[in-house]
């Protein structure tokens, strides 16, 4: 083969190779079932039209997230019990978020005497829920399921809000694992034993309301608990989460949904008597 012919063949081969890789990358991107891009054919405004089983995303009357406004809540006092414990877990890049999933019994949260077992946690940037109109920099969701098939509301989610500040210790432990799945949809890595208590999800007070999943199929009947205690996360930790997911989920917060006259309860689990001194920090949020 002449030298010029060989060079031409090599160039064509490289073009074919890179072209094929570009097509494969595009196929991975187009494989997404939904995204968070405003105005996109698969964006939040269109979720309810994408599949019949996702119709609750547009027709539901108890959708999440919502704004939690203090003057409109019903005050309650009721301690709740958690029994979280260490167990083996994996970290997965689901394309639209980063999730830590436990492989077995990682403990439970008890709500009105019903057990809800912890399944997984994931992150949204910025926060999905707002408090008195304020949106925070990040929100962690702890997803629980009741093992009792006779329970009417089998899913319970705890929302933990974060603002920019000191690094979050739990995310710091996952830094290397998150870095290893950057841009790799469906990639999963073993984390070994992970203790849910390291999330430090306790709060002296919390909001409670009935809502839905915040991703398709937007299933309703979810018991939502959103802590009033706001934790801190570093800007670099948020940037890593955004870098890890695919481009259509860099900001993976669903827009606020109508309240539709739902009751919002504010529980005080460790404050003691309800006084203005106790309430004042919430008015300043």
UniProtKB/TrEMBL annotation:
InterPro entries listed in its UniProt record: Alpha_CA_prokaryot-like (IPR041891), CA_dom (IPR001148), CA_dom_sf (IPR036398), Carbonic_anhydrase_a-class (IPR023561), Carbonic_anhydrase_a-class_CS (IPR018338)
Domain Alpha-carbonic anhydrase: 32-268
Gene3D superfamilies: Alpha carbonic anhydrase (3.10.200.10)
GO terms for MF: carbonate dehydratase activity; zinc ion binding
EC number: 4.2.1.1
Cofactor(s) the protein needs: Zn(2+)
Claim: Ribonucleoprotein is one of the keywords in the record: no
Alphabetical GO biological process terms: one-carbon metabolic process
Signal peptide: 1-25
Family indicated by similarity: Belongs to the alpha-carbonic anhydrase family.
Keywords annotated in UniProt: Lyase, Metal-binding, Signal, Zinc
Job description of the protein: Reversible hydration of carbon dioxide.
Substrates-to-products reaction catalysed: hydrogencarbonate + H(+) = CO2 + H2O
EC main group: lyase
Protein name (Swiss-Prot/TrEMBL): Carbonic anhydrase
